[in-house]
Design a protein that fits this description.
The chain contains six helices and two strands. The chain has helices spanning about 10-25, 30-40, 40-55, 70-95, 100-110, 115-125, and strands at about 60, 65-70. A hairpin with a 3-residue loop joins strand 1 and strand 2. Helix 1 packs across helix 4 and helix 4 packs across helix 5.
Length: about 140
Amino acid sequence: MDSEPEVTENEGKYLTFIYRKQNEESARVRTTGLAKTFKVRPATVTEKLQNLAKRDLLKYTPYRGIQLTKEGVAIAQRLLRKHRLLEVLLVQTLNYNIKNACYEASKLDHYASESFINEICQRYKHPRICPCNKTITHVRECGE
């Protein structure tokens, strides 16, 4: 049986957003940008970043920036893998359009078990790209 998620759904959204911006878009992540994205006050973002930093999931220096730690990157990659493989399932099996698949996957990704995601990955022969044309990270446990 899979273990419980190490982060809350909200924390996972912060980590995956930061990961996408930094690693897939080569963009800087700022507190004000996070506040706009998540529709919260900058002080709320600062508090969330400080809490994630206390848990060694990121390094946060006010007015300087945010950098995910190795553990933060691993969690973000795992959540993005789940999201992207759910998109594959929804598009290829249920004929969802890409936008709706992304929306539905974002509601499910945090809660899907690793074994379920690995089954999807194996069923679709370990896809490398999701319907949104983003890279799907592979894990040894999946059997590829």
